[in-house]
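Retro notes
What went well: the complex prediction finally ran end to end.
Inputs used:
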Amino acid sequence: MSARSRLTQERLLYLISPIGLLLLWQLLLMAGFGDRRFIPAPSDIAFRFWDMIVSGELWTHVAVTLYRVLVGFLLGVVPGVAVGLLMAMFRPVRIFFDPLIASLFPIPKIALMPLLLLAFGFGDASKVALVAIAVFFPVIINTYSGASNIEKIYWDVARNYGASQAVMFRRIVFFGALPMIFAGLRIALAVSFIVLVAAEFVATKAGIGYLIWNSWELLQVDVMFVGIVTVGILGLIATVILQEIERKVIPWKAE
Amino acid sequence: MVAQRRGAAIEIAGLCRQYGTGPGAVVALDNVDLRVAPGEFVCLVGPSGCGKSTLLRILAGLDHQTGGSIKIHSEGWAVENAMVFQESGLFPWMDVETNVRFGLDTRGVPRAEADPRVDDALKLVGLTKFRHHYPHQLSGGMRQRSAIARAFVTDPGVLLMDEPFAALDAQNRVILQTELVRLWEQTGKTVIYVTHSIEEALLMGDRTVIMTAQPGRIKRIIDVPFPHPRDLMQLSASPEFGRLKLDIWRVLEDEVMRARAEMEQ
């Protein structure tokens, strides 16, 4: 009973801060602080949001952005996990990749956009490639540190019970690193939205980033806010889905 | 049920293990000789740092000697040895059944043959109902039972055990000791059991090997005269048991004192 009421309390608390902030924002504007043409009230954004959903305009942009995120994410994550695991298992692989990661990771990935436009053109491919590159690094680093921190006893058991390198890879290193891999995927997910929206500011005619930048240029500030809010909502939904997958895939993780 | 065949014989001759070289070198094992008969239950006892775990790890193929030789006559056994580790070493990401099956999977035992063997092993340790549980859902005793099943299922010539019950509470330890002795009596495996408890060594083993620290050497080998099958609780309350325990403690006492004196220097 008391545990339950505490849970309800915590849920309320969880909602109070965002709702309170929106309410304050709304009230300040209604009280005449700020110019509603440049700073729309939450209610203005909500109405515009609804309009754009009904008209279908928002969906087009959402679909384009989601497609680019999803494909780029997968293209970056799969090799990132593989390389991270191999680095943990084989010293030469680690020595080979270490300087590359150290030098390439800090480069702001958006700085590669001109290069990628040159290589892949103005279509989806350049955006997808950018997301893949940006996602690759956090995934590699998390996978590697997860795999190299697997307790020694599991290596010993695997060796004593006759595990080959392939079995080590598939059944010990991969699963041992999985909790850290998922931590990496969460970072990667956020990173992919960050770089993609920035990339969509230029050289494209669709996507949430385009929507934001274009409405800014047209001074449709409420539409711009709709775009920003949409990115937040998409990120939230994607994270929740990823957490659900994690719960299914890592049943051994003690609550 | 009486064992039809006995486990593998072991011959250890002049075994040395040194870590590092030069003046900083640590001699973990110094010229260790030991012959273990097929199906014998041998306990290694000694102060920490006496090399008993090192010896076990070399036998398990997890470490290598720097001198001497080891021969394990495991012809006719599916695998040479299987180890039960101190903290069970169950893979947290596999359920009990998958953990137990692991040593069969790695050796390519086909499913049709592996399944009944896994069933038998789980029945042997009384974990059939818990086969789909993950290690974190089990008690410490159940985890060690799973680890024992994982070792037995591979049908090893030698069972290597590294203080497997050290982390258990007293009641569970007695229960698992009893179960292990029963299993050993039924299967006739050769068992090398590392422990720091004299009492545990005398309760379960045929012979107790007392080792000394720095360098790790065999100080004495004591035949344990108690017949099998054993009732461990009754045995531990008998005067003969108490006397033997005292004798061994006297031997070890010197060692412990000497080791302490060296540390204080």
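What we learned: The mean pLDDT of chain A is 92.
What to try next: split runs per interface for comparison.
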